[in-house]
Write a structure and sequence with these properties.
About 30% of the residues lie in helices and about 20% in strands. The protein is globular and about 65 Å long. The chain is of the alpha/beta class. The longest helix has 14 residues.
Length: about 280
């Protein structure tokens, strides 16, 4: 295994792997003249930059890690053959994330290989604090505000399950496009977090439409949650059957929750503040 990056972070990870230092935007010299069995492109955001490695790296199989954000509509159910975003004349990643990723996919598809489209990637070393909020909040105990209804869909994928599937695709040389998400429900997800990290915590289910009326922010303030009448109502309604048929498997959610508490930290950017949660719970009491 060879890792190619700028050598600026996580230098102590994977000490057994060969490490090549460079920059995928204009400094790929360390890759020139070498060959590999497969390429796993995990951090391509701009098509111009992805094209550099697509054209240079010598390997018979090129796997590009994309996102379900490439779909032109997130009304659900989301399937691999649905229309994706068109091109944009911009490299502004924050404003055009989905469009740029779709363009990167089209560049990568000029090589034999696969496209994997995960949703929220969670588990050990997750830096985003998004799913991380839930197991850490439940670990603190007490009454935990949860978005009703319990049967509403929720989707994510543990990084270890995604990684294992990616390696499997490379080893088998399987081509195609794959939605890589574990689709569950809010009830199953949060119940698993309770069982996994703190059986003493109490989930208090609050209607999603009421949360929206109170101005609770989707996705970040209340992580993973999308409002019933929000902009992306089908974000969690993802068809993963193609990936499952190709070998994608999911570990128990209790294990995901425990690993998250042990190996991922919360962030100030994601999650209800304690006083905000208390106010909402008091208002519904």
């Amino acid at each position: 295994m060879t890792l190619f990056n700028r050598g600026q972070t996580n230098a102590d990870l994977f000490p057994e792997a060969e490490k090549l230092v460079g920059d995928r935007d204009g400094n790929l010299e360390a890759l020139r003249g070498r060959s590999w069995d497969a390429v796993i492109d995990v951090a391509g955001y701009v098509p111009r930059v992805v094209r550099q490695s697509v054209e240079l790296v010598d390997a018979p199989y090129y796997l590009f890690v994309s996102t379900i954000s490439v779909y032109a509509s997130l009304d659900g159910p989301i399937r691999e053959d649905d229309e994706t975003h068109g091109d944009v004349d911009s490299e502004a990643i924050m404003e055009h994330y989905g469009e740029l990723k779709a363009m990167c996919e089209r560049v990568a598809q000029t090589r034999p290989g696969a496209i994997v489209r995960p949703g929220l990637i969670v588990g050990p070393h997750d830096p985003t604090g998004r799913f991380t909020y839930w197991p850490h909040r439940i670990a603190r105990g007490g009454d935990v505000l949860a978005p009703a209804p319990r049967e509403a869909k929720a989707s994510l994928i543990d990084v270890r399950d995604l990684g294992a599937f990616i390696v499997h695709l490379c080893e088998s040389g399987t081509p195609g496009i794959f939605n890589c998400v574990d689709v569950t429900t809010w009830g199953a997800l949060l119940d698993a977090c309770v069982r996994g990290v703190n059986p003493g915590a109490t989930l208090v289910w609050v209607p999603g439409d009421w949360l929206a009326e109170q101005g609770v922010g989707e996705w970040m303030e209340l992580p993973l949650w999308v409002a019933p009448n929000g902009e992306f109502p089908g974000l969690h309604d993802v068809d993963n059957s193609r990936a499952v048929a190709a070998g994608l498997t999911f570990r128990p959610l209790e294990e995901v929750a425990r690993a998250t508490v042990e190996h991922a930290e919360t962030t100030d950017a994601a999650g209800l503040k304690p006083e905000r949660e208390a106010e909402l719970l008091a208002a519904r009491a």
